[in-house]
Amino acid sequence: xxxxxxxxxxKWFGNVQVIKGIDLxxxxxxxxxxxxxxxxxxxxxxxxxxxxxxxxxxxxxxxxAEVTDQPPSKRGLAMVFQSYALYPHMSVAENMGFxxxxxxxxxxxxxxxxxxxxxxxxxESYLERRPKDLSGGQRQRVAIGRSIVRDPTAxxxxxxxxxxxxxxxxxxxxxxxxxxxxxKRTMIYVTHDQVEAMTLxxxxxxxxxxxxxxxxxxxxxxxxxxxxxxxxxxxxxx
Length: 238
Ligand code: ADP
Ligand code: MG
Description:
By secondary structure, the protein is an alpha/beta fold. The protein has helices at residues 42-50, 92-102, 107-120, 136-148, 166-183, 194-200, 218-223, 228-234; strands at residues 4-13, 16-26, 31-35, 57-62, 65-66, 77-81, 154-158, 186-190, 203-208, 211-216.
């Protein structure tokens, strides 16, 4: 579970084509990073995979089943954004368990899942706090915890660390790497930060205004960038 395939996907906003026919296969458990300049279509592509944006043409498959027209709730994926939008009036535990509770899970069940996620994220001693009494890094952990409890087949991250200061970004980057090692789930991670891309990715997809400039391991991209655009983006000496 957790294999994702994009088949000639396109996105048009009116008569502007933002995603220009992308083919990509992501293996179960793979950590794939989308990089590229602002406005190149990273968020749009991620939102299409998550079902928050419809796909104008082409198909999206999860584990071989077409999900192109399925709503987000039927895709089994979890999205984590840079703005974590926690409910201020709920405790950390309630924030993390909310979606399970809404789906009708009994209290004992959602609380057990929240406890498991809290242990993974080292949030055990914060479960009764309100979001306002947490640091930025802790809030981001709660946002990630909220997705872990749903046991998704894949995690979709859209620049989850860009609101954090530099030191915290490093800490959270290591945390996300550890999460991937522990959970062994597919992760698709959007960033414009080359260091995040190079250190987290099994494979990097470099996007250039709606198309794929190159796909490869960090090492392949660094050593053999396909063109100057990739070289400049990855910071390799071509
Ligand atoms: P990135 O995440 O790489 O910065 P986006 O996917 O947000 O890029 O945006 C890609 C392009 O699509 C940009 O030109 C943006 O202005 C445009 N775009 C994004 N969302 C919409 C929308 N809802 N309506 C019209 N244009 C949009
Ligand atoms: Mg974006």
